[in-house]
Amino acid sequence: MALVLLLDRWARARGGEVLALTVDHRLRPESASEARRVAAWLAARGIAHSTFVWKQPAGVPGSALQARAREERYRLLAGWCRRRGVLHLALAHHAGDQAETVLMRLARGAGLDGLAGMATSLARDGVRLIRPLLLIDPRRLRASLAEAGQEWIEDPSNRNERFERIRWRRIIPPGERVSIARAAAEIGAERHERERRLADLLAEVHPSPDGALELCVEPLVAVQPELALAALGRILMAVGGEPYAPRRESLERLLANLRADGPARTLGGCRVAVRRGWVTILAEAGRHPGGAAKGENRAPDRRRTRPPLMPGSFTVAKLDVNIM
pLDDT tens for residues 252-270? Predict the structure, then answer.
């Protein structure tokens, strides 16, 4: 609610408009009436609003329910934005959420990129996700709502210690939330620079007619190991279709094998081979639904291993120009 009111004020001052979206996951009996209440609050303020209902599939275990609901929420919201040509999807994650995310990742042994927490801006499924409140204490957001005379709804799951995030929330002193979030922002700035270097390295990757990706070994050897491991992880995700990169230890072994011109290996749903200084990464047999034949322009689920066919010819190369 605080995000909607703040963005509405910002957009109106610039001749723009805010469209508020609610996803009703139907995980609690009260969710439908709560969504209607939000719609009424916003209608009274002249803010457009739409509600989406997620029909929970049968057989999803409780431990995976939150993660599944989160993915479906993004899918519904991003899909709505794409269909209507809306570029920016604003999310209300605040400093408390960021602090919890950082400590959860730290406890799992995340690397430096993981400690950067959630990104303030991220392209996903054709939409730019923005998080303008990442450095704002949630107490300030509640104070803003109180000053505006606006009620809000507290989700009872935010007090349920069955969830890891809530247990961390109990541990973090309220006064330290912003400090942790600021530290994550500084790491995030460093991550942004590493991402730029990573993009330069990935620009050296070439798609082959059979859907494989190819890369000369030399750039992988020349850059810092951290950058080489990140590049391998991204390529494996793109070809294998997995949502996450393989574990660091597995990537380190793969990189050592490539440097030694070793035999073909499998990792992340991919077959990785090196020959005459070139690395070829191809999806493992059986991972392409429907058994797409070699040369067909069919992209398997969750994969974008090659561009769609276009008339004429085109070149894939690093864009070495200054964009103003």
Answer: 999 999 988 889 999 999 9
